[in-house]
Structures are given as C-alpha cells and as structure tokens.
Amino acid sequence: MATAETVYNTTTTVQEPKPRRFIVPSENLDTVRFGIKVIEVLLSFVAFVMEEAVSSCSQCGPLYFFEFVSCTAFLFTLLLLILLATVLHQKVGINCWPTLDFGYTIAMAMFFMLASIVFAADNGQTDLERGAVAFGFLATGAFFVDFVLFVKKQGIPCRKGNNQPADRTPRPESEKLNSNGTDSVN
Length: 186
Description:
Layout: H1 4-12, H2 31-52, H3 61-85, H4 88-91, H5 97-121, H6 127-154, H7 173-179
Helix pairs in contact: 2-3, 2-6, 3-5, 5-6
C-alpha cells in the first residue's frame, strides 16, 4: 500500500536538474572561440609531436625554442580551454578571465610566430622540420584569429571604463576635479 508521502512526493516536488559540467557558450567563451581554441590545441600538439620526431639537429637552439613554445602552447591552451569550458573556472581564485584569456592569446600568438620564424630560418630542411614549421604557422594563425574574434566580441579588457572611449574634451582643471569622472557640466 502506497503512503501519501510517496504519491505526493513524486508529483509535487520539483526535481532540480543536474548541474552542467560543460558550459559552452558562457560569458567567457562562446561556441566559435571554443572551436578555435580546440584547433589551437590540436595544431600546437601536432607541431610539438613533429618537432619531437626530429632525430638530429646541427644547431639545436631554434629547435629547442620551437619545442618549448609548441609544448607550452599545447599544455596551457588545453588547460585554459578546460577551465573556461567547465565550471572549474569558478573554483579557481581568478576573477579576470577575459583579461587572462586576452593576454595569453596575444602572447602565445607572438611567441608562436617568433618561434616558427626562427625555426623556419634555421633548420635541417627535413620533411619533419618543414611540417613542424607549417603547423607552427597554422597555430600562429589560429591564435591571431582567436585574438581578433575576442576583440570584436568583447573589446580590449585592459582598458578602463569597460571599453568606453576616453573623454578627450578639454575642460578647466577645476571642472575635472569636481566631475568625479562624469561628463556632466555644472
């Protein structure tokens, strides 16, 4: 015999949905940029693996620099992707994800471009080295595309005033002091 509690419990209580672990799109990462970050991870990984397969080098400095940049790009982009695409970013003590993502993306684009240019200029001209350089430039392009899309959608996060243009109208010094950053004229 069913009790009143079991009958009413199934019809009157609202079942809360399970919390989502994977949150794309979100305020930090939209679907397009998520796809681009996945491409960055894959291209960085392929560049790193191809570079690791090189068996000998005459001057190893450019090879090692390219190795460092491609490995760093792969690991840190994967980490950033996991953090931004899941609820883990809420558990880390960082409040400025857009600034971190912006800075990381442009820095990695520049480092990958530099490493690819240096490695392209000084390598043994083997097929593996050429392939690694090609994937390095493809990864560079992906980072720059990510950067451009970020700026188009969110602006530059480092600017004050949430990307509002600065007030450049000349005003007397006393008015500047009294305005407290507002544009109203007394």
